[in-house]
User: What shape does this take?
Amino acid sequence: MGNPDLPLPTPTTQAGREGLAALLARPDRAVVALDFDGTLADIVPDPERSRAHPGAVPALSALAPQVASVAVITGRPAGTAVRYGGFAGASGLDHLVVLGHYGAERWDAVTGSVRAPAPHPGVAAVREELPGVLHEAGADAADEHGTWIEDKAHAIAVHTRRARDPQAAFEALRGPLAALADRHGLIVEPGRLVLELRPPGMDKGVALAEHVRATGAESVLYAGDDLGDLAAYAAVEELRTSGVQGLLVCSGSEVPELAERADLVLPGPEAVVGYLAALAQRVRPQGG
Assistant: This one.
C-alpha cells in the first residue's frame, strides 16, 4: 500500500471517534459502506464517463479482507457501478458487495452475479411520458444543450448539469417531475443537479441497515456526498441507539445538509480513497 504512515484524520465528534475506535478494535465485525459517485468517483458532467478514483480498488482490496464487509450503495444499477468501479475480478474483494438501485439490486464479488427484482411498471410509463413533460417545461429542458435523461432500467434520472442555467432548470423541473412520478406510483429523489424518479420503499438507509444487521456488525462507517445519502446517515444514527457504533464521513462540502451531520468531512473522492487506504494500514494484522 505504499507509505506505511498515511495520515488518518480524527473525527470531530465524540460519536465519530467512538465509531472509528470500534472499527479499529474489531475490524472483523465492521461494515464499511460507501456511495459511488462523488465519494469513490469524481462527479463529471456525463455520468456515463464516471469512473472510480484510480486508488479506489487498491485501497478496497487492502481493506476488504480485514472487515466483515465492504458495501458500495448507489442509485446506479449494480452492474454499472461494478463496471465503472473496476471491481469485477479484482483481488482481495471477496468481502465486497454492490447494492445498486438503492439496495434493490445486489452484486456479490464472490459469485460475480447480480440479483435484481422485476422493474416497477411505473418506470416504463415515466420513460414513455418523460420527453413530453420535458418539452412542456421549455426548450432549455428539451434541446441538446439542456437536460439529459439517464435510463437506469429500474429508475429514470433527469440531469440539469448541461443546461444553460443548471439550477434554474433543476428548480423548474421539480414540480412537473414530482407530478409525473406521483401519477405512476414513483417518488422523486433530488441530488446535485439531478432528479431521479424511482419506486418507493427502498433507499440507502434501508439498504444499509439491512446489510449491517445481516452481517451482525458491531460498527459501521458510511461515506457519501449528496442528499440521497441522508437516509444512510439517519440509519447509522438509528443503529447507534441499538449499540452499533458509527462513523459518518462526508465527501466534499457542497451539500451542507450532509456536511453538518458528518463526523468527518473530507475534501472529495481522492481524500476518501486515501482515508480507506490509511484504514487498511491500521487494521492489517501484525505481520500481515
In short: The longest strand covers residues 245-251. The chain has a mean pLDDT of 92.
